[in-house]
Amino acid sequence: MQPVDEALDRVARSLQVRFLQETVVRKRRSVGARTSRDTWVRIERRRLSKITDQGWNGTESAARLKAVIQPAWHGCMVWRDTDEPVMWRADETDLLPGTPVGNSILSEAPELPDEWWKRLNASLDALAAHTTKRVATPDTETITQASVTEAIRALFPGDFDTTVQRWVPAHADLNWANVTAPVFSLFDWEDWGNAPRGLDSASLWGSSLAVPSLADRVRQERRRDFESRDGKLMTLFVCSKILGPYAHPQDPRLEPAQRMAEQVIEELQAD
């Protein structure tokens, strides 16, 4: 058996559930499946070096967030691998109220009703109003002032300050694979924590760039974030990830990301 299959068996025994094999979804660092009691279990394997002092309980700790639309959390199990320096974690939650909108990067515009955007805005605003000691870990890397400055300066040298003014709770992995439609819900909370204001908005915008009308809609809906100084820095931060050394020359997001970066730099230099 493969390690993932062994993990599925172990979790099923511990949580006393049966996984519906036809529903198993395998991703880069996780596997999930529907259970016989109409819940969802997500299992993640993470190296010990990637587990910070704040712990590894993002989905569990996010359960306390009020007015943020997400699947209800039921319980978890965690264990350390005996053969490798990794840990495994399984979280059981309610089923999603809809299907994921798409992949992390969309190539065509989804049909999203105004009510969907209203709930997205309400959830992101409610999230930012909370307080937490957690620090966001986008792509499992802790976000800091130094990492923000380094990412921006590597691609966009210029006469503007990269100092973040406001840090607020953020989902930190907001893309079209982690939201549902037609009923809105935000899931996969492993990386949430304090981050520069506008990270979530900029991240969703970045995953929309291949569809100009969708990217424009994100900027319109989250314009207060994008108009803020920190939101402009986060726009550059996201652009740096798109335009960085691992960029694919055929990525349709390259040109609009470069145009927006130039516009934002002009605005920051004029401040």
Spatial shape: globular
Tell me the name of the CATH class of the largest domain: Alpha Beta
| Radius of gyration, whole Å | 19 Å
Q: Helical stretch count? A: 9
Main pleated-sheet profile: 5 strands, antiparallel
**Roughly how much helix do the residues carry, as a percent range?**
25-40%
Q: Based on DSSP secondary structure assignment, what is the total number of beta strands?
A: 9
Q: Bin the strand percentage.
A: 15-25%
Distance between the termini: 59 Å
Order of helices and strands: HEEEHEEEHHEEEHHHHH
Counted up, domains total 2
Mean pLDDT reading = 95
What's the arrangement of strands in the largest beta sheet?
A: 1-2-3-5-4
- CATH architecture grouping of the largest domain: Alpha-Beta Complex
Q: Spans of 5+ residues with little confidence (pLDDT < 50)?
A: none
What class do helices, strands and sheet pairing give?
alpha+beta
Q: Per CATH, what is the topology of the largest domain? A: Aminoglycoside 3'-phosphotransferase, Chain: A, domain 2
Protein name: Aminoglycoside phosphotransferase domain-containing protein
Summary, kept brief:
By secondary structure, the chain is of the alpha+beta class. The protein has helices spanning 3-15, 58-62, 114-129, 145-155, 199-206, 212-221, 223-227, 229-243, 254-270, and strands at 25-26, 30-34, 39-47, 73-80, 86-94, 99-100, 167-170, 180-181, 193-196.
Description:
It is a single chain. With 271 residues, the chain is α+β, with helices and mostly antiparallel strands. It folds into two domains: 3-94, Phosphorylase Kinase, domain 1; 99-270, Aminoglycoside 3'-phosphotransferase, Chain: A, domain 2 (Alpha-Beta Complex). Helix content is 37%, strand content 17%. The protein has helices at 3-15, 58-62, 114-129, 145-155, 199-206, 212-221, 223-227, 229-243, 254-270, and strands at 25-26, 30-34, 39-47, 73-80, 86-94, 99-100, 167-170, 180-181, 193-196. The strands form three sheets. The protein has a five-stranded antiparallel sheet with strand order 1-2-3-5-4, with helices on one face. The chain has a two-stranded antiparallel sheet with strand order 6-8. The protein is globular, with a radius of gyration of 19 Å. The protein starts with a helix and ends with a helix. The model has no long low-confidence stretch (mean pLDDT 95).
